[in-house]
Structures are given as C-alpha cells and as structure tokens.
Amino acid sequence: MEELPPPAFWHSRGYLPHFDGPGQLQALTFRLADSVPSKVLASWRAELGLVTGDNPTLRRRIATYEDSGHGSCLLRFEANAAIVASCLLRADGQRYRLLEWCIMPNHVHALIEPLDGIRLGNIVRTWKTYSAREINRRHQRSGALWEAEYHDRYIRDQTHYEAAKAYIRENPVKAGLCGVAGEWRWSSTFESG
User: Is residue 83 part of a domain?
Assistant: First the structure.
C-alpha cells in the first residue's frame, strides 16, 4: 500500500487539497478562468455526489472539457502563449526544475521540482500573476484571467513520473492540435527546424 506524505505538508483553501513537500516532484495543471464554467463544474459535482474536492472521474471530465477548447482560449494566440512560456522558463534552475511543460489554448501543464524550500503555491502564483497582468494588458481587459485553484499531484514513483511526462507531452496530440508531440510549438517537446 502506498505511504501517504506527512500531514504537515498538506493544505487547502476549501476546494482542492495541495501537497507542498520540500523537493517533491509535482505534476500540475492551471487553467483560464472561463475554460470550465462554474455551472458545469457544479453540475458534475452534484452528479458525482461531491461537495468539495474532486475525484478521478471529475478530473477526466475537466480534462476532456478543457481539451475541447471551451472558453476564450486566449492562450491560442502566439503572443499570449509566449508570455506564459517565458513565465515558466524564467526561474527554471533557480526556484524549480522544469521537467516537462505544455501550454494548451485554455490551460497549462507542468512537471516541476521546487528547489530550496520554495513553496509550490508561490511558484504558481508568480506564473499566474505576471502572465495575467501581461495578457490582460495586451487584450485591454481586466479581471481574473486564471481559475483561482490549480490541480497538483505529487509524483509517487518512477511509473507515475513517466505517466505524467507522457500525459503532458501527448496532450496537444490527444486534443487534435498536432499530429505528433514534437510539432506543438508551446511545449518542452517542440522540435524546431
């Protein structure tokens, strides 16, 4: 049976639980605020009997919905995707190791290892704050760009690590955005020229 991480590293803001252990590899997803409407989420939660939190069925539904391209899909614009990519890459090797990443039209996946006791929530907040300011400025808009929460999953073992990497690499292919992962410009697998 899998051993759970120490309770001291778990926290929640009332929605999703987050594990923020030192040096722990994390697969995470954060999405645009309009990518999955709250009415849709509420309906799914009611159907699944969930008051708060999530479960594997809900996560699959969210992923399928995101990949269908709902919402404004502001990250489909090259300049916006470049802003997010810059945010992800800026502190790689200083605050975290960025092991895999992919920017989809309405959400972002990353596989990281936070360094030197830097909290995962602080890393994600930095990415979201800077990119929201820049993208909102570009589109002369205000308000929330990103969904307040993000989904993180600590990597339990080598098998889980390989599965998380494959999921991130193949997400653009699965969503029909390209034929093979190396063709997707906004990912760590992009093969230029």
Answer: yes
